[in-house]
Design goal:
- The chain has about 250 residues and is an alpha+beta fold.
- Helices cover about 25% and strands about 25% of the residues.
- A six-stranded mixed β-sheet has the order 2-5-4-3-1-6. A three-stranded antiparallel β-sheet has the order 7-8-12, with no helix packed on it. A two-stranded antiparallel sheet has the order 9-10.
- The longest helix is centred in the C-terminal third of the chain and has 14 residues.
- The termini are far apart.
Length: about 250
């Protein structure tokens, strides 16, 4: 998990464009990592909280003059690297890091100018704050590779909480191309499609009536919208191999 700090002046641009810029390249980041977007406290109005959005990190690379002029006009000489993000989500209950009980060191994050890595012990404390209901949402991390997913809830219908972190770990490992047809939304639609893909549960959520331990690499797989629809087309969830075989058979007949 990372924290990106932004001024009130650039905050809207970062959220709207899902991009942030830095004078130096952040270290120790990985694709799919959760980003906390934090507005500088001095720019928060009245009781506004600093952290109200999260993103998923796609890439950090050297920026171009055209990108700086487009997203941050007037800062041509300051920014050298650009972070490309996706999956911007509004935090249900915005917060400041000062609000997080038992955080290892709030001063550590106050001293951050633009970006920083969230300490692992603090990440476990922050994750529950990113979900609609920390009492009902299974975001507890059992190990770095295991997540609870599919917590059975009886509201008006049975629902299953999809763990956003597990989704991001799946994409970080498998990439953003469909596992069946290899379609990639970013390649086809450019910036509009960057970061978009469905994530399919190999074990259908409808068959799970209790919490289960999901491995984002083995139990989740990226599919385009078309192939995902075909997996569920018959009413009985088909396997990825079944749909892939059907597609290959069809292509050979052409």
């Amino acid at each position: 998990m990372l924290i990106f700090k932004t001024s009130g002046q650039t905050f809207e641009s970062v959220i709207r464009n899902e991009k942030h810029a830095f004078p130096n390249c952040p270290k120790n980041w990985f694709r799919g990592e959760t980003v906390l977007v934090s507005k500088n406290k001095a720019d928060c109005i009245h009781s506004e909280k600093q952290i109200s959005y999260t993103m998923s990190l796609l890439d950090i690379r050297p920026t171009t003059d055209n990108e700086i002029r487009k997203y941050w006009p007037g800062n041509d000489s300051r920014w050298k690297y650009i972070a490309i993000c996706t999956e911007t989500s509004h935090v249900p209950n915005p917060f400041n890091l000062d609000d997080v009980p038992n955080l290892s060191s709030t001063q550590h994050y106050k001293d951050v100018q633009i970006f920083a890595k969230i300490k692992s012990e603090d990440e476990a404390l922050i994750l529950p704050l990113l979900t609609p209901s920390s009492s009902n949402t299974p975001d507890e991390i059992i190990s770095p590779e295991q997540y609870y997913e599919g917590a059975y809830q009886k509201i008006s219908v049975n629902s299953y909480e999809r763990n956003l972190k597990a989704r991001r770990e799946c994409i970080a490992h498998h990439g953003l191309s469909c596992a069946i047809c290899r379609f990639n939304f970013g390649n086809r639609y450019g910036e509009l499609g960057e970061g978009y893909i469905h994530v399919h549960h190999v074990v259908p959520l409808s068959k799970i009536g209790k919490e289960y331990t999901v491995d984002p690499v083995k139990d989740l797989i990226p599919l385009c919208a078309n192939c995902h629809a075909m997996v569920h087309r018959t009413g009985t969830t088909l396997t990825v191999d079944q749909v892939r075989k059907s597609l290959k058979t069809r292509l050979r007949k052409k």
